[in-house]
Amino acid sequence: MLNLAIIGPGLVGSEFISQVLKSTTRTFRIIAVSNSKRMVLSQTTAPLTNSSWKTQLESPSATPTDLAKLAAHAASQQEPCVVVDCTSSDAVAECYPVWLRMGLHVITPNKKAFSGPLPLWDDIQKAAKEGKAHVFHESTVGAGLPILSTLRDLIETGDDITRIEGIFSGTLSYLFNNFSSPNPPTTPSTFSQTVSTAKSLGYTEPDPRDDLNGMDVARKVVILGRCAGIPLDLTTLHVENMVPEQLRNAPNADAFMQQLPEADAHFAKLNEDARKEQCVLRYVGCVDPNGQSSVKLAKYPLAHPFAALTGSDNVIAFTTRIFPSPLIVQGAGAGAAVTAFGMFCDLLKIDRILSPHA
Amino acid sequence: MLNLAIIGPGLVGSEFISQVLKSTTRTFRIIAVSNSKRMVLSQTTAPLTNSSWKTQLESPSATPTDLAKLAAHAASQQEPCVVVDCTSSDAVAECYPVWLRMGLHVITPNKKAFSGPLPLWDDIQKAAKEGKAHVFHESTVGAGLPILSTLRDLIETGDDITRIEGIFSGTLSYLFNNFSSPNPPTTPSTFSQTVSTAKSLGYTEPDPRDDLNGMDVARKVVILGRCAGIPLDLTTLHVENMVPEQLRNAPNADAFMQQLPEADAHFAKLNEDARKEQCVLRYVGCVDPNGQSSVKLAKYPLAHPFAALTGSDNVIAFTTRIFPSPLIVQGAGAGAAVTAFGMFCDLLKIDRILSPHA
Q1: At A55, is the pLDDT very low, low, confident or very high (cuts 50, 70, 90)?
Q2: What ipTM was reported for this prediction?
Q3: CB B81 within 8 A of CB B104
Q4: What Pfam families does this protein's entry cite (chains A, B) (predicted)?
């Protein structure tokens, strides 16, 4: 049996709790839940249940959040404990080394620790070894798609990475699958109209510049690179910011959206140039062992797997010595259900090690 | 450290030995190698090396193959041992339960045990539990592609399978990607010409009827079904045999190839009918929890991911509750290097459990 300490039970965290507590083959016990303000620590005799943790977090038994106390509680139990960070907080990410050295395992979809400063990344790897603890973060790239687990297998079997290339943003996938389709409609939408539709469908961040600036994709490329043994850094990676320069200082999302049509001619020309070469536009991240890693808008031939993408799917292509024609993984790369699924897969990795005959 | 006992060191087995002995992060020791006639068992002091096992298998120290002796030798060592079955033998497959009950782990690309009689499948699962041993066979479906590991995660997290559909034969992938391309050449090849080309490239079995009868794909569908908890059986699965009835009794491969043009009109008509519906032909295997599992030639729209397939790639689409738009894995699904890679991934699964902090 594994204990779980959940930090940040929002949309993804709640879904994760719901998925793991339904497991019929393995037993997980929630011994702590904490949001940014309050936390509940279980009594040994009464683990938190799917229906009780929310109520308890709002009840008088909840105390002000203190992650040091939470970790001490988690480490004091007889059974091993996995701390599940469902936040996107830098402060929580910085706790991983301490937790790992206490022997607490960590799983998380939080990209901060793995795409932030390299010393933190290095310390996490070192702490996991020292604490004989496991840290997994499949959902930081492509949510539940088997991407980091596949990369780990490629690396640990001694394969050589030639190139890792993919579409890692559901938002930007949707945007360019529609704006630059292999089979465009007779009256195609402008770039700003396509962004506007994506925004109204809830596919973009509240301010679409947070998608268009490429930083979310950049974090995923940094994580992939580091998992492949290439010490990429967010501050030096080449990232094409698609927010037009004159719109970067627009005071808010509404002002930005109002001005965005100014950029339509620019994107229409890029699209037209691509079409002339029988290509479509896709916003891709690329890990290149030869130093040319990048995040950029690029042209792909109509027959390329990236061109045929639909909806808001993610896709990744691993080109390696053993897979000269790439190994491709494709599917939904965003959303609470698939993110929680990826975290559950990480939890299974740990439970299979600790209870191999469950 | 893990010991390895290799049975059937042919093309795949040799490649596997070569890959694992190159590992820089984990240590594996070969303590037995056996082909169908002779075997070598290591002395504790002298494990077999990449350069020595072949010589030793031909030397006077080699003894007649006796798998019971080999298993006893493997089980008598202090370290855990993985028996690696690189044969396609029914007789070797039938030994798995005994080995597992002795605590020997098993990994293999041999489909026989997992697609054969259900009682053997059941006994293997039971034996693994009783012996607290692991059995993995990723390479039985799609070689090194992360297919069975992904399916295992979907099942163990409690996701519900709606449908598993894929192109599981590199040969038949090549055949129909070329015969029924979304962008056919101006003078397309006939079906028999396409088979003939595939044969001359070494993509088919010596007798192409062994590909066209669909039995290899059927075995993979049975394995996928069983891994998904659906007890499919080779003898009752609906399998479309593409060998024309009048050619099934042709005395040999040459006679078959000579007569195959008789079937060209039939396949040309199927292709033409598909094209009229803006579709291509693909030979697919399908696992359907509602009892309609099958292996058949089917039509796919030009925009479907299966239509865009090139070369001899395999592809699999998992449609589930959590992935209503399917999770797709694609890439090379045949060849010694990728098959051995899939076996190496299985070996890592076991080593990560037994040596979690290596």
Answers
A1: confident
A2: 0.96
A3: yes
A4: Homoserine_dh, NAD_binding_3
